[in-house]
Amino acid sequence: LLGQILDHWFESEPLRATLATDAVIGAMASPHTPGSGYVLLHHVMGELEGRRGAWGYVAGGMGALSQAIAQAATARGAHIFAEKAVCHVLLGRDGTAQGVVLQDGTEVRSKLVLSNASPQITFLELIPQEQLPKDFVQRIQQVDTRSPVTKINVAVDRLPNFLAAPNARDGQPLPHHQCSIHLNCEGTQLLHQAFTEAAHGHPSSRPMIELCIPSALDPGLAPPGCHVVSLFTQYTPSMLAGGRSWDEQARNAYADTVFDCIEDYAPGFKASVIGRDILTPPDLERIFGLPGGNIFHGGMSLDQLYFARPAPSYSGYRSPIPGLYLCGSGAHPGGGVMGAAGRNAAQVAIKDFRHL
Q1: Which residue from 78, 102, 270, 353 could staple onto 106, CB 3.0 to 4.6 Å apart?
Q2: How would residue 70 be classed by pLDDT, with cut points 50, 70 and 90?
Q3: How many domains would you assign to the chain?
């Protein structure tokens, strides 16, 4: 249990609760849920520029990271087809992967296929079900993909001014503006209550909010004096109580709740908003192909990690289809912007490629 870990090391309840957010981030779980301690450890594994457990902003926004990877690939002879949806994996008569078929009918043939789509899309949509073992298909269908996350992107015409640390007179960003700001985290009980509401189909009345202002470090993301604010909020169920879907009214009502909370900490925030983009779990699934809106392609619970990710006997990146590999967040060791699954999968694929 996460609570036991934090109680052992820390005395301050606000500090414990703030650290607890990284144990439930992206997870439909409470700090009191067994196994939640692992997700916290997952978020502090590795290092950045020699600093253990550190995180960083990507200059130019997260898309710049994708561009850097793309440029490295094309420099080595890769061809990238953007905006070309894959219809299905091309299989030979012997059942091996031999390329992909695009939605426009184009066949792209290859000796190996690596998929960083979710296990659900890869195995339930891109492969004929009769080509896969029944128990494997059942396992992929049963993966817990519930997600509590609603992401809200906000454009503001001035820097948020927090009561706890008022802005400088010149309006320049202060150190706390350049960090991750956690709101509604005064106690772990608040997080548990927010989870409980969502478990019953109701968006949290006092959501957990992780607020970042990337433009405080990277001014090129917004016009002079303006900023972009990224809100990672939870808990919001994929399906609302009574089977209601996330219509425009429900979306805006939840976003208003989030903004009201921020207003309590930083009066004037609501008046500074000049635009907002609300992405509920169904939106994250529809736009980004995240099953259930889950940023990790599947819960990071102990029964879905290590040798069981995405399924027992298939945690080594190979799949039941020879020549098809899984290299995304649904593979070991799971989600997060770290590239571990992709690097590991590439090494396995290269090893196999040498024997073709």
Answers
A1: 102
A2: very high
A3: 2
